[in-house]
Amino acid sequence: MNFNFDDDGKIVLGKGVKLNAYKPRPTIQREFLTENELRNNAGGDLILDVESYINYFTVGFKHVQTGKYISLDNDFSSQFLSWLLFSYRTVGFNSIRYDLIVLWAAYVNRDPGFLKSVTEALIVQGKRANEVEREFGFKCYPLQKRQHIDLFD
After folding, report:
1. Neighbours of 70 (CB within 10 A)
2. Which end of the chain is more exposed for a tag (fewer CB within 10 A), N or C?
3. What is the pLDDT of residues 9-58, one digit of tens each?
4. Three-state secondary structure readout of the chain
């Protein structure tokens, strides 16, 4: 692969698009919900996002009303996950076809490799929830109407 460089030694892409040097941004400090706040704010809204890698799994929630966060990484209580999903209204993007399915898979097996396999079955292989449930041995529990909002659908 050949790269074109400008006079300053920066890579030039395509028709003259120049890449600037990477400048790290300061870390954004997040405030997390306490146990009391979790209980007291039940019934509120949580924005959710799942990230799955071969060696790491995380799900982040942002409480809409307070702007505070909840983070679940690799090893967490499946009962706590279930409580969150049934005690709050959740909001996501393409979450009915991905995030919620992977969360219910994490309910029974929190191994990052397992969850990455579920992710690949959904995204790469295009499998549906019922196919993935059967193949990987878990169940997606239905949430009540209006318990989850998918901004994609």
Report:
1. 18
2. N
3. 777 777 767 677 889 999 999 999 999 999 999 999 999 999 999 999 99
4. CCCEECCCCCEEECCCEECCCCCCCCCCCCCECCHHHHHHCCCCEEEEEEEEECCEEEEEEEECCCCCEEEEECCCCHHHHHHHHHHCEEEECCCCCCHHHHHHHHHHCCCHHHHHHHHHHHHCCCCCHHHHHHHHCCCCCCCCCCCEEECCC
pTM of structure: 0.82
Encoding tokens for residue 131? 């196919």
**Tokens coding 99:** 């995030």
Dist. CA 69–CA 16, nearest whole Å:
41
